[in-house]
Amino acid sequence: MTQIFEKPLYPYARSADQDAATPVRHPVVIVGAGPVGLAAALDLGQRGVPVVVLDENDKVSHGSRAICFAKRTLEIADRLGMGETLVEKGVQWNLGKVFFGDRKVYEFNLLPETGHRRPAFINLQQYHLEQDMVARLRELQAEGAPIDLRGGNRVTGVKAHDDHVALSIDTPEGPYALQADWLIACDGAGSPVREHLGLGFTGRVFEDNFLIADVTMQAEFPTERWFWFDPPFNPGQSALLHKQPDGVWRIDLQLGWDIDREREKEPVRVKARVRQMLGPEVTFDLEWVSIYTFQCRRMERFRHGRVVFAGDAAHQVSPFGARGANSGLQDTDNLCWKLAAVIAGDAPEALLDSYDAERVQAADENILNSTRSTDFITPKSAMSRIFRDAVLDLSERHEFARPLVNSGRLSLPATHDGSPLNTPDALPGGPARSRPGAPCPDATFETGFLLDRLGRGFTLMGLGVQAPQVPGTTPLSVADPDDELRARYLGDAPSALYLIRPDQHVAARWANATPATIATALSRATGATP
Amino acid sequence: MTRLVLSPNIDAPDNLYADLLAAHEGLSETESAALNARLILILANQIGSREVFRAALDAARRR
Ligand SMILES: Cc1cc2nc3c(=O)[nH]c(=O)nc-3n(C[C@H](O)[C@H](O)[C@H](O)COP(=O)(O)OP(=O)(O)OC[C@H]3O[C@@H](n4cnc5c(N)ncnc54)[C@H](O)[C@@H]3O)c2cc1C
């Protein structure tokens, strides 16, 4: 298991750029090959935009980090050509149990909505995701995609100019310089790019420590998620257990603020706690132990001229609700089609400001959600603890209290209400879930699924009406939509036209529309018309 | 229920009030606070509407 952390995936190799007399200019440079930087590279590479990815490291991220990847991430991964790989490897669960004190208060079954290609989420170690992303990147390179991944390249300086960004880079063979028309900073929460540009990162620090332990069990253990509030083995705190692939279980133990970190990490101590959690009859091995603290903060703006921030570099949330990597992949999904259009000259630079508007909105939503979970899990006042405990007490016998129990909400993609790219809703009776700004809900479609039928560009979908030919869009028509499509896209309307963006968010919808009206909406959705 | 009722609406006010006090009799402050919290949550569910609940919060804050 530890070997995966040590194996170089993209070892340093000398680039011709290092021997150039003057700094070589590239259309796009991505700093950071974590999940977010790699997703940006795959997306742009697939679009034929040449990218250079720089990472100071050459391996998967160390130790246990993200394990819960939401449906939206899988749908994005499908478009990056690797959704199936993740789902095959990932663990799916439906049964959750909630414990309060020494008793189980209730259990729940997720019963996901049918008619979606992908499950609500999977559990998968972040290092598997990163490894699969690098494998996919190699596959694309072999097909000729212009992606250049450089390990052992540490960015040591960044200077932003009006028409380009200048980078200083250090390597095992000494420094060199590069220029980029556009820089995407995916260099994580500590973002050196952000530091070099002197940009702020403000928010809230939570005074808490969490111990994560990955353990392997030697016997069968159910594939369920168990969450404890105030358990006997961790009084006054919380604990979480859920399953990852390869027979590995993730244990999350809240420790509080005033602790001796080194002592808490001692294997004997951790093992004693885990034994209390799982019961004396369960035998297990410790794979990995670490302690982390967390923050909720974000940059004020994610676009600074030719430097665009994505992922943890732009925003950081508490791990409850699994929004870090999940929202980072939505960042690049939002950004890459826009950047590709700007680079191709198909859209004005101002289109990138909509990235800022939409993803700042999403970051605020994620921070709000994870802060609420944190406030439930770790009540911040005597009264909030009284209410929290009251909710848990009631949840044992009364179903009504269960939706109030907040041990982390599922990460759902943001609906970009009020986005400058939206055209006002013109589908009377249309369902709220597919309004302009919303991510398209998946649905069964002919012999497959709808989302797989939406292309890399704009789609004009006609339901109960033929989608007309509009330059810049690909038509997709269904003469007689079934009940599922009707429920998700028509509501009370007999027919509809949907203009769908490359990132599968709805840009506009109408009961019916002329090609000229559609063209205006398309122009707005690409930043050309306000 | 779509609006917060602030006119008299309790069937037998003295009895209801006595029930409320009786429920707290013999409880420690901690137990009473917990009982109140459970009660508020149950009543909140009965109300259901966030709007009405917020109007109730406002009325409670103004005294
Ligand atoms: C305990 C824990 C549990 C989590 N659980 C979840 C979860 O269940 N679901 C979820 O979605 N998220 C989760 N997260 C969050 C998730 O791990 C992060 O959001 C995610 O890794 C962010 O990806 P990133 O690519 O933005 O940054 P990172 O993964 O931090 O990658 C940044 C990259 O930049 C490189 N870099 C940094 N500085 C330089 C430099 N100067 N030059 C070149 N390269 C540089 C680094 O080497 C690194 O490879 C969890 C996090 C923790 C700690």
Q: Please, could you describe this protein's structure?
A:
The complex is a heterodimer of chains A (530) and B (63). Chain A is α+β, with helices and mostly antiparallel strands and 530 residues long. Chain A has a domain at 432-525: Glutaredoxin (3-Layer(aba) Sandwich). Chain A is built from 13 helices and 24 strands. Chain A has helices at residues 3-6, 35-46, 71-79, 83-89, 126-142, 192-196, 261-264, 267-278, 324-343, 351-377, 382-397, 483-490, 515-525, and strands spanning 24-31, 51-54, 68-70, 95-100, 103-109, 121-123, 147-150, 154-160, 165-170, 176-185, 202-217, 225-229, 238-244, 248-256, 284-298, 303-304, 307-309, 315-316, 444-445, 448-449, 458-463, 473-478, 496-500, 506-510. In chain A, strands 1, 2, 7, 8, 9, 10, 16 and 17 form an eight-stranded mixed sheet that branches. In chain A, a hairpin with a 2-residue loop joins strand 4 (95-100) and strand 5. The longest helix of chain A is centred in the last third of the chain and has 27 residues, at 351-377. The termini of chain A are far apart. Chain B has 63 residues and is mainly alpha-helical. Chain B has a domain at 39-63. Chain B contains three helices and no strands. Chain B has helices at residues 13-24, 29-47, 50-62. The two termini of chain B are 22 Å apart. The A-B interface holds A 383, 386-387, 389-391, 393-394, 398, 400-401, 404 and B 33-34, 37-38, 40-42, 45.
Secondary structure class of chain A reads alpha+beta
Beginning-to-end CA distance, first to last residue of chain B:
22 Å
Helix content of chain A: 25-40%
List how many beta strands of chain A DSSP finds: 24
Tell me, briefly, the overall form of chain A.
globular
* CATH class membership of the domain at 432-525 in chain A: Alpha Beta
